[in-house]
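USER:
Working in pairs, take the chain set out below, taking as long as you need, and write a paragraph about the fold.
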Amino acid sequence: MTSVMAGSTIRQAARRIRPESQLEEQLAERYIRGDESAFEEIVASYQGYVAGLTYRLLGWGGDVEDVVQEVFLAVFRNLGKFRGDSSLNTWLTAITVNKCRSWRRKHLLKMKLLKIAGRQKQAAPPRSDQGVMNRETFDRVRRTLQGLPGHYREVMVLHYMEEMPITEVAEVLGLRRNVVDVRLSRARARIREKLADLIEK
């Protein structure tokens, strides 16, 4: 029960933004056939989702706009190779995760130095979340997620915030299902420890 409550608390901290259209697979097919306007429609359909996912994977910080641009640049370069082995959403999510990993590797030292110097800036939470929790609670959940190691944060964001089944999380991250299960379990344990007073027993 406590693991369910931990997941529920995390979900409230950041709601996912999924594309509304059910025609994304057709957009990929159109692009492969040479219809370049399909790429613009994919960007319009997925931009909010990719930005929200990037925002959460980077711990509510980082150069979100730059990473989102890198994601869609990679999509533009590789969309012609998309063959539908996975859903377009899963494929885009995997690209986003990889770009966020690259950003964390590039900026890890800089972030540590800024934190030590006390100059690290905290990004403001999305407006859509401010009405769900009060600011103090939101900040606690945000800091707890931000404090998780990257491999734990990834599985928590994808499973609880993006509401992906564990099998899809495993596909996106290129992991076995049991590895995802272990990471989720360990991440929940850390969150329960930090947010014990917020989680119903």
The two ends are 8 Å apart (CA to CA). DSSP finds ten helices and no strands in the chain. The CA atoms of residues 94 and 172 lie 5 Å apart.
